[in-house]
Amino acid sequence: MARVSDRLDSALAAEARLEDYAALSTQVSTYIVVAAELIQRGQPPETRAARTQGLAETLAQTFARLRAGLDAEVAAAQGLDAQSRRATLSLSIARIEALFHSAQAGLTSDTTDPARLRAHLDTFASGVDPLLAEAVNEERRLRREILRGIDALRQRLVLAAFGMGLLALALSTGFYFGLVRPQFRRLDALRAAARRIGQEDFAIALPGTRQDEIGALYSETSRMAQALATRAEAVAEDRAQLNQTIAQRTEALRAANTRLERTDEDRRRFFADISHELRTPLTVILMEAQLGRQGAPAPEAAFATIETRASRLSRRIDDLLRVARSETGQLALDPVPVDLSDLAREAAAETAAELSNAGMHLFGPDAPPAPLIVEADRNWLRQVLAGLIRNAIRHARSGGALKLELRADGPEAEITLTDNGPGIPQELQARLFDRFAQGGGGARTQGFGLGLPLARWVIEQQGGHIAIESPLPRAEALGESPGTKIALRLPRAAR
Question: Which of 212, 293, 224, 288 is nearest to 1 (CA)?
């Protein structure tokens, strides 16, 4: 029984060391995760040292317990072979501790190079696993040897019991069934529990009613199983949290990339639109300058036109600068109360020379019974109206007539521009608001196809909408041609 007690003490020590190994494994994993996060975030040495100090102290305590237990095992071991094996375990722990100190020194050094810091951490991570696995396997092997020794001792006790049975069969039988056999059953239960723990099945239930060595081993084994189960759950939760964090960071990065792509698309779209708008004032400036060089009879009018167009071109450049400084790349509109009658007359006056050169006549706009006031960017809304008139000049020149009308329709105000041109085929109308789309053959293929898309964007950004109707009913047509009507609707300003 003294030998059994010694072996059980050795088994208890082995179980305690296995628990310490499990704790060491969890602490090392936690240290690696924290260190990797610190390196990834590029934390300074002071922050790295502060964040890992507690983990380093915990690891140091675990190393101290393991060294103390192994030193005691070396001193108590009998035989050179047993002492050598336990000394080998102590050497493995010393190597793990040396790797940890090296990694901690590298992590808390003054360097901020992520590659060097990861190299220290990778060296520690790659070196600790085989050493720890070797130590755990050796402890398990020693524990199995202890259990096998217990089994061998049991066999000797059985033989002794049979020998004693020759002298006192009844007493021996009572002694065996009353004392020895129950101990064996408890040891069998302990061995089965150890086997289940070795298979990572921690749901064991050992009775802890008796306060002897086996009872103490039962209690320690149960406590170790509970601790291992708790640590396994913690590791699983940490892994799940880490995966969730990675998924969240990935989703955030994907959303940021989407926002960047959207911003870039908005910026490129605006520069394409504004480039279309810059062509018209530049063309007029060049034309007036050429007329001035050729000796125009009224140079003051030419210079006035050049000044007007240059001012408009300057406004467009200011819009470009605002967009270049903006966060989203979109044009910033400045809505103010605007009288549509005045705005329509301004657009008609702006395009009067072009209408005259094209041999076209613009009817209207007639003043409505009451002022039509809308909340809109005055400059851009005038540009939209002038652009629609120029589109009609370019595509419906053959009709010779345009009609500009204003009317109130409940809470909205409507502006319509009707031409007497060849109309737009139904299959092309759905594409007119697509960027770079063209209206048809012949003269329609001129331009860049950006006017109507830009017009729709300006109107919709101010709460309105734009629609095209072609061909027109005979009652609304200006002549025999199919004709086209473009209608702009905007919310009326609250009085």
Answer: 212
Average pLDDT value for the chain: 80
- pLDDT single digits (tens) 425-448: 888 877 777 654 444 433 333 333
Instruction: Note whether 23 and 62 are within 8 A (CB).
Output: yes
Residue extents of the structural domains in the chain:
2-201, 334-491
Q: Where are the beta strands (DSSP E) in 72-217?
A: none
334-491 sits in which CATH class?
A: alpha beta
- Strand partners for 139: none
Contacts with 69 (C-beta within 8 Å, 6 or more apart), sequence order: 13, 16, 17, 20
Produce one character per residue of 94-121: b if its CB has 16 or more CB atoms within 10 Å, e if not. Answer: ebbbebbeebbebbbeeeeeeeebbebb
**This prediction's pTM:** 0.42
Lowest mean pLDDT among 106-120, 368-382, 436-450: 436-450
* Separation of alpha carbons 453 and 416, rounded Å: 17
Candidates 31, 52, 199, 39; CA nearest to 124 is 31
The fold adopted by the segment(s) 2-201 is Four Helix Bundle (Hemerythrin (Met), subunit A) (1.20.120)
Over residues 459-463, the mean pLDDT reads 91
